Amino acid sequence: MYGHVLRAQIRSQTQYRMSFVVEVIGSVVINGLDLATVFVLFSVAGSLGGFGGTEVLLLTTLSACAFAVADLVVGNADKLRDYVRTGLFDTLLLRPLSALWQLLAVNFAPRRVGRAVQGLVLYVVALAIADIDWDLARAVYAVGAPVAGAVFFGSFFIAGSTVAFWWVESGEMANAFTYGGKDFSAYPSTMYDGWFRTVFASALGFGFVAYLPTLALVGRADPLGAPDWLRWCSPVTALIAAALAALFWRTGVRHYRSTGS
Amino acid sequence: MLSASWALAGAGFRRYATYRQATVAGIFTNSVFGFLRCYVLLAVAAGTAAGVAGYTGPQLATYVWVGQGMLAVVNSWTMLDLADRVRSGDITADLLRPIDPLWTYLWTDLGRAGFAMLTRFAAPLVVGALAFELYAPAHAVTYVLFAVSIVLAVVVGFACRYLVGLTAFWLLDIRGVSMIWVFLSGVGSGLYFPLALLPDWLSTFLWIGTPFASLLQGPLDILVERGGPEILALQLFWAVALLWACRVVQARAVAKLVIQGG
């Protein structure tokens, strides 16, 4: 069922081929620019937060890859705002399918595929040139970490858009945690400081997206003092985040009162 | 004419003053990004003896936080509704009014920027000042230059977005053009890092050859006293040149206007 909706959506969005191509290329270029920013800052100091070139590259591409995949699959959840404001959400609830998956399928944006592929390719390149002492655990984690990161970012996308059930004008605020979380995890946590680092890296858990997995892959202890086993825990935090987001979404749907129009 | 301008600016101010929740959400987001960018730039500065292109720590902090505040004032990410009115044909009603739509939009946008100064600009600055050591300008005249510079930045940003909107007369759909604009104005204006970090030829080109540096980098360099009246002259040049371009392009657009829906 969702497959039908998805296919229809992909067909309709690729109808204007030129416009679609321009949008795909545009988003790839903008994503490349994010990485270029990291490179410019890296070239100024020759290291970032005590990490060398291949380590920073691995960390940044891991975060970018995880975010791009999350953005592709659930990034369109923020359309919920319009559904709640106009009362269109009623139509999703009336159909015998999950409202969340309908929302995601109907608003699926295939133009984001370009960015996800780009992120994946760069991550693989970073893995290849990084100084990693390969063993089975690391090989599994190299595959699992971007998946866990994507689930983690996805949870924030869902949770951020769910706020719209209570507060329709909240749009920009969710960006602080989705795009802000992406920016945070694109750099080593050692670059941040004070309560801000505690909140973003530990309390919200963005340290688990790229920073701790990178430490595990290259075999470095955390300069900030996290125990070694914690570096391997990003799948656990991703599952916790996903469970909380799902719970929040359910609460939101129960709270939903139609506009009645 | 003058009283009409004030009325339009007042209307722009009041219109945005009604979006209170969106203003609070925006301030929160700008502040989070202020922390992110500030920590990153300060860490880069701490990691190198040469400093970040000659910026001291407090100068960088001011650069980031005032930059976050100015983002909403210059507002280069939000397009004018000009393109929608061209597509729907409503623009014909605007062209019939006694004031050229260019000036109507400009004054309304200045009113919007005025409201943004009091809220979106001021609040992140307070947050930044509480959390970091900011750079206080040594000369009183700097504040005056900075104030003029912000007004010019708003005008330059407005004229660019108006030009983007005018392309709707030919393209009808401006998504592609506005995407290119958002991309170029973001990186070219120094939003992510000071332009001085780029190779000389590239930063010189962005300063002189494009209006982007006039949006953020120019006013910010005036505030941290790395530049003075010469930046204002550059901004003034771009403001006049772009407004003139708006007039020329609009005249051509109107000449070929086809009214949708008869």
From TrEMBL, chain B:
Keyword rRNA-binding: no
Coiled coil: none
Keyword list, A-Z: Membrane, Transmembrane, Transmembrane helix
Pfam families: ABC2_membrane_6
Cross-referenced InterPro entries: ABC-2_transporter-like (IPR010390)
Membrane spanning stretches: 32-53, 60-80, 113-136, 143-172, 178-198, 230-249
Name of the featured protein: ABC-2 family transporter protein
Species of origin: Actinokineospora xionganensis
